[in-house]
């Protein structure tokens, strides 16, 4: 939806609510936030894609529009990208590398960028785009005389429901996508017999054809788009079975027809021939036929029950309540429009759980990881290709996974990192003559790892190193040594690349990356290209530290541990600039940069997601990071606002954090369906928002669990249950009058920790499996 229209809509909504009295200050209700509040709901069908409601099982996705006369189910399958297996490593890059480094150290940054663009980018220098399957369209007839319309998405059940009344008949449509049975299911019912009639067919922008195999079966078959002038290698199939109870089923030219039925159940399966980034030998026809045969043989209630149980086993692990006002009773789109003017803490809770819902929907074990659009995309050429942008966006997608008790959902990301440790080894050898592996600021379905787009954006060698932080976090929360042994070669390989490619800065004597950049930020010399940006140093410092810890825990690789320990001590340190800010570059360029309000805050990686900078541990650096945030400003793109929420939460500034959260929840950055508006839609803002709210309530690092570190005065009382802390802890937290009323701590591993609330510190030692309750008595945390 265009921004101008949304501003006009906001003015209209505020004016209407003022006339109706809705905008008067809301009174808190005694009713707590509950499962009844875990619904997005609307009084009209979706018109725009960003009004439709998302369903997903990690692999299959659908956007449900909820039309009365015509239902649109826009479909995605997570391996439908353009192109075919390819390796873009550019051998000319290695020849140019010494001259690129010399130009940078001589201060000839624009010349270095030109040489990078001409000689160092991958061949091809563009990656492939994520693509839609198309749409499954159900046509019911005229929409006249309909009333009582409601469409909703129940986050607790992962079910979309549409209800309305037409010509004296109440119709209901339920749609879900089952991870258990790997199919989309839609059931259409009426409260009078013989009243369900429809036509079902496909629409797609792909090169595809439709085959009607009988009155119950219709199939869309197609191929993916080309890349770099070459045909795509993927074949896809979307197969549908329509089962009517009563009535008559027949066929049209390219559609299935049902007339006079009591109810209709539609099953859809989709697949491609993709098996891995180097194997496209799969059989989508065999896959979809088997899935449909199995699912359509089960009773609808059994399918639905199994789906709900599977979803709730993940979603139900965490509950959250920030309080509730009467605005929680309004339709979701109206709440978003009014969010800047009214007190609606339940909207923040809904957004929080929506983020968890979306991650469950777009990242499951065995699927592709969440991309820039998660799973949901209506185009052949998605915004920014719908790829994996790993200079912040892919990482942000997974920030809430560990702390909000969804660790399994990180498995697709871990699997992708394993893949790019293989393809990235080729890039490291060909373009740097280095051991180990590297990837730059983007990757795709085919796990391309060379720098792409332009030198200004693509010449950043630290993407893989940042991804390794997620591999380490998976260990740090669960402490599984078998898993650590599995990922250690990946950590080692990422470290080994920097052992071979870090160079001594002739001006400072420190070891730095060169060439590199602080992602997408132009320094005063007209480009992003530089040596040793602060973010690189922080990321590599984490990578080396975690590789060292893993080596110590596994009692292996002592010589390599010693080598990177010494090298880590030679990395360029964080620096504080003339404005009191944390410097983004080795030189104090921040205040002369092209955009001091830039969306990226790359040099603050050390504050979040890293823990190198903390208010209590490194107060001077924390103050400098705060100054950098103040200079940058709060208002930015959706994901950048979400990053700022996490950063301000780490600084313990609850009210400032909440004010930025309100920017994220407003109609300029949240679409009617609560997708994040970059704009256009990028899902990382949703996940970053969930992560930021978690950081406001609970932080865990350096063997501490910090309670309510950035609680805003807007949430004086509330509760959250099921959060996870590093070291195998589960935390339930109730607060009242801005202080912990009850803290329930469960240890699954028997590790030691320290509870922290403000200046109060309490060491805790629980046995494996032990649960303990604590409260704040006004002076100290005490065990009950």
UniProtKB/TrEMBL annotation:
Residues 40-276 form the Glycosyl hydrolase family 95 N-terminal domain. Residues 1-28 form the signal peptide. InterPro entries: 6-hairpin_glycosidase_sf, 6hp_glycosidase-like_sf, AFCA-like_C, Alpha-L-fucosidase, GH95_cat, GH95_N_dom, TAT_signal. The keyword Signal applies. Residues 300-697 form the Glycosyl hydrolase family 95 catalytic domain. PROSITE patterns: TAT. Residues 699-759 form the Alpha fucosidase A-like C-terminal domain. SUPFAM superfamilies: Six-hairpin glycosidases. Pfam families: Glyco_hyd_65N_2, Glyco_hydro_95_C, Glyco_hydro_95_cat. Coiled coil: none annotated. GO terms for molecular function: hydrolase activity. Keywords: Hydrolase, Signal. The keyword Calcium does not apply. PANTHER family: ALPHA-L-FUCOSIDASE 2. This is Glycoside hydrolase family 95 protein. It comes from Asticcacaulis aquaticus. The lineage of its organism: Bacteria, Pseudomonadati, Pseudomonadota, Alphaproteobacteria, Caulobacterales.
């Amino acid at each position: 939806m265009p921004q101008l229209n949304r501003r006009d809509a906001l003015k209209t909504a505020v004016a209407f609510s003022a006339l109706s009295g809705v905008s008067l200050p809301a009174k808190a209700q005694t009713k707590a936030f509950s499962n009844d509040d875990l619904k997005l709901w609307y009084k009209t069908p979706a018109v725009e894609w960003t009004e439709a409601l998302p369903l997903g099982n990690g692999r299959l996705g659908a956007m449900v529009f909820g039309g009365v006369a015509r239902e649109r189910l826009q479909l995605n399958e997570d391996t439908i990208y353009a192109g075919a297996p390819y390796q873009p490593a550019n051998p000319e890059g290695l020849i140019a590398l010494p001259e690129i480094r010399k130009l940078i150290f001589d201060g000839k940054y624009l010349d270095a960028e030109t040489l990078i663009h001409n000689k160092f980018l991958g061949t091809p220098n563009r990656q492939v785009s994520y693509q839609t399957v198309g749409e499954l369209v159900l046509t019911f007839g005229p929409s006249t005389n309909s009333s009582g319309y409601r469409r909703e998405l129940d986050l607790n059940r992962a079910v979309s429901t549409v209800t309305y009344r037409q010509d004296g008949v109440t119709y209901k449509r339920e749609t879900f996508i089952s991870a258990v049975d790997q199919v989309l299911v839609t059931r259409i019912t009426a409260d009078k017999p013989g009243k369900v009639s429809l036509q079902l067919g496909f629409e797609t922008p792909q090169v595809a054809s439709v085959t009607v195999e009988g009155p119950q079966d219709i199939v869309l078959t197609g191929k993916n788009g080309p890349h770099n002038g070459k045909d795509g290698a993927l074949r896809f199939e979307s197969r549908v079975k329509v089962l009517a109870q009563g009535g008559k089923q027949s066929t049209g030219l390219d559609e299935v027809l049902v007339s006079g039925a009591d109810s209709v159940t539609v099953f859809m399966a989709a697949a491609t021939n993709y098996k891995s980034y180097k194997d496209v030998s799969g059989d989508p026809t065999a896959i979809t036929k088997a899935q449909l045969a199995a699912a359509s043989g089960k009773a609808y209630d059994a399918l639905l029950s199994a789906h709900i149980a599977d979803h709730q086993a993940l979603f139900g692990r965490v509950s959250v309540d920030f309080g509730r006002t009467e605005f929680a009773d309004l339709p979701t789109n109206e709440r978003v429009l009014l969010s800047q003017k009214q007190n609606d803490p339940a909207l923040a809770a809904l957004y929080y759980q929506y983020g968890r819902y979306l991650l469950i929907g777009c990242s499951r074990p065995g699927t592709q990881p969440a991309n820039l659009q998660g799973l949901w995309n209506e185009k052949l050429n998605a915004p920014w290709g719908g790829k994996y942008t790993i200079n912040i966006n892919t990482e942000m997608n997974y920030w809430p996974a560990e702390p909000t008790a969804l660790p399994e959902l990180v498995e697709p990301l871990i699997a992708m990192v394993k893949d790019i440790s293989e393809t990235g080894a080729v890039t490291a050898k060909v373009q740097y003559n280095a051991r180990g592996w590297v990837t730059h600021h983007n990757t795709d379905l085919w796990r391309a790892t060379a720098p792409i787009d332009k030198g200004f954006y693509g010449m950043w060698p630290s993407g893989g190193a940042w991804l390794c932080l997620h591999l380490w976090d998976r260990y740090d929360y669960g402490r599984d040594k078998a898993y650590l042994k599995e990922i250690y070669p990946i950590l080692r390989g990422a470290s080994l690349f920097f052992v071979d490619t870090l160079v001594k800065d002739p001006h400072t004597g420190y070891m730095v990356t060169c060439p590199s950049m602080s992602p997408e930020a132009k320094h005063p010399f007209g480009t992003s290209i530089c040596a040793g940006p602060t973010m690189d140093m922080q990321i590599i410092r984490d990578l080396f530290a975690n590789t060292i810890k893993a080596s110590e825990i596994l009692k292996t690789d002592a010589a390599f541990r010693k080598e990177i320990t010494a090298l880590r001590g030679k990395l360029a340190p964080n620096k504080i600039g003339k404005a009191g800010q944390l410097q983004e570059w080795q030189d104090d360029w921040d205040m002369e940069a092209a955009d001091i309000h830039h969306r990226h805050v790359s040099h603050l990686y050390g504050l979040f997601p890293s823990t190198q900078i903390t208010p209590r541990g490194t107060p001077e650096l924390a103050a400098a990071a705060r100054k950098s945030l103040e200079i940058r400003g709060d208002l930015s793109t959706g994901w950048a606002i979400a990053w700022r929420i996490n950063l301000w939460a780490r600084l313990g500034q609850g009210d400032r954090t909440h004010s930025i959260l309100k920017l994220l929840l407003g109609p300029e950055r949240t679409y009617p369906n609560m997708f994040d508006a970059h704009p256009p839609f990028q899902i990382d803002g949703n996940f970053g928002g969930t992560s930021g709210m978690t950081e406001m309530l609970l932080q865990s690092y350096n063997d501490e669990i910090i309670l309510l570190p950035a609680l805003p005065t807007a949430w004086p009382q509330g509760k959250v249950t099921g959060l996870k802390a590093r070291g195998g802890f589960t935390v339930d937290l109730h607060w009242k009058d801005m202080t912990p009323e009850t803290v329930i701590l469960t240890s699954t591993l028997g590790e030691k920790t320290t509870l922290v609330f403000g200046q109060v510190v309490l060491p805790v030692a629980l046995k494996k499996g032990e649960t303990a309750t604590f409260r704040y008595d006004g002076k100290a945390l005490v065990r009950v």
